[in-house]
């Protein structure tokens, strides 16, 4: 068995790919194709690269005029819109103007004025966009909108990478796009599950527990990924499109486990936004609609742990909470 590895920077994070197969050519081909595909997704979907197709579209569309987009950009959008509808706009891929305003990647972030937030919120609303799959166009019914695929882009790229592992007959592989992880075929030789740790959102460098992964992805959404603190108050990067402020923390973190990588990324952010009860209902609805497997490990704001029965979660510390 030949194993190859590759690391590269994309989506403002380190991406790692490991692949094993019987022949070296397949391994090398898979790794190179995966890197190429990840970079293509980035150069199409990045809100931070002003030359990306998405940025060019955000700047140049005309209200009510269908705007032609590539198959790749088109493919990345429908589930975002479905989840926006299912969460009644708590999750909203048109959050871009608000994400820009808060600017969590800035070295000296500030809390924006309320009047500016109010102005910017007029440019947020998924109901103002319409996709035409047949004609491959998008139409905006509001000016100056900015699509932000930040909540699902890595999962989307991970799904394409998985297709390339399969196409190149890779028997075992691990793809990690900044914590969005997929384990293909389990451990090399044995195919046994790869045991993956979930971070404790309440204690940096501590582990909450582990989940076994074979042919499954995991993604976690939490306030601690990007935040700043002013006068003891935490401002984090998952924003409430109805108030314009960071979302009130009903959950500290939620990890989603599924064989469909796009869903892990999308649903972890959406679940985090709607809170535990609505998050569970969202999962039930998605399972019914798409026949997709979805499991969760959630930490509520008071530290209570909630785990779905199929997650295979094992708590790391005995005193971390209760398992359901
Ligand atoms: P990360 O990609 O940082 O690991 P997430 O997948 O949870 O974490 O995505 C967070 C990103 O989602 C934010 O940085 C922002 O770009 C975007 N976002 C923030 N609020 C919302 C929202 N209400 N709906 C959809 N996307 C959002
Ligand atoms: Mg996400």
Largest sheet: 8 strands, antiparallel
Compressed to H and E, one letter per element, the order equals EEHHEHHHHEEHEEEEEEEEHEEE
Coarse morphology: globular
Bound molecules: adenosine-5'-diphosphate, magnesium ion
Mean of all residue-level pLDDT scores: 94
Spatial sequence of strands, sheet with the most strands: 1-2-6-7-10-13-14-15
Helix fraction, binned, reads: 25-40%
Poorly predicted runs of 5 or more residues: 320-324
Strand count = 16
Structural class: alpha+beta
Whole-Å distance between the termini?
40 Å
Textual characterization of the structure:
This protein has 324 residues and is of the alpha+beta class. It has 8 helices and 16 strands. The chain has helices at residues 24-45, 53-60, 71-76, 78-86, 96-102, 114-121, 153-167, 261-290, and strands at residues 2-10, 13-21, 67-68, 129-132, 137-140, 172-177, 180-184, 194-199, 207-213, 216-222, 227-230, 233-236, 251-258, 295-300, 305-307, 314-315. It has an 8-stranded antiparallel β-sheet with strand order 1-2-6-7-10-13-14-15, covered by helices on one side. Strands 3-5-4 form a 3-stranded antiparallel β-sheet, with no helix packed on it. Strands 8-9-16 form a 3-stranded antiparallel β-sheet, with no helix packed on it. β8 (194-199) and β9 (207-213) form a beta hairpin. α1 packs antiparallel against α7 and α4 crosses α8 (261-290). It is globular, with a radius of gyration of 20 Å. Magnesium ion (MG) is lined by residues 151-152, 219, 221, 265, 268-269. Adenosine-5'-diphosphate binds next to α8.
């Amino acid at each position: 068995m030949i194993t190859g590895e590759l690391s590269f920077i994309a989506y403002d994070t380190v991406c790692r790919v490991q692949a094993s197969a019987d022949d070296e050519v397949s391994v090398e081909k898979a790794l190179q194709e995966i890197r190429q595909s990840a970079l293509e997704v980035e150069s199409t979907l990045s809100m931070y690269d002003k030359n990306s197709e998405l940025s060019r579209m955000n700047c140049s569309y005309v209200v009510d005029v269908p705007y032609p987009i590539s198959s790749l950009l088109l493919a990345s959008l429908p589930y975002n819109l479905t989840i926006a509808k299912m969460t009644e706009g708590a999750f909203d891929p048109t959050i871009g103007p608000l994400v820009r305003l808060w600017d969590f990647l800035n070295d000296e972030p500030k809390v924006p004025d309320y009047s500016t937030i109010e102005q910017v919120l007029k440019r947020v609303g998924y109901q103002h966009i319409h996709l035409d799959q047949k004609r491959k166009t998008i139409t905006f019914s509001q000016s100056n909108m900015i699509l932000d695929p930040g909540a699902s882009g890595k999962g989307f790229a991970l799904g394409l990478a998985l297709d390339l592992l399969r196409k190149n007959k890779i028997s075992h592989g691990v793809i990690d796009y900044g914590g969005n992880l997929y384990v293909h075929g389990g451990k090399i030789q044995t195919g046994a599950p790869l045991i993956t740790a979930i971070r404790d959102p309440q204690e940096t460098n501590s582990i909450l527990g582990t989940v076994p992964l074979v042919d499954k992805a995991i993604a976690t959404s939490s306030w601690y990924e990007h935040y700043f603190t002013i006068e003891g108050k935490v401002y984090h990067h998952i924003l409430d499109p109805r108030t314009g402020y960071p979302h009130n923390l009903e959950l500290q973190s939620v990890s989603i486990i599924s064989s469909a990588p796009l869903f892990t990324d999308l649903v972890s952010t959406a679940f985090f936004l709607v809170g535990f009860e609505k998050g569970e209902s969202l999962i039930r609805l998605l399972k019914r609609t798409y026949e997709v497997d979805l499991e969760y490990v959630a930490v509520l704001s008071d530290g209570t742990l909630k785990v779905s029965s199929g997650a295979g979660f094992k708590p790391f510390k005995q005193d971390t909470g209760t398992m359901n």
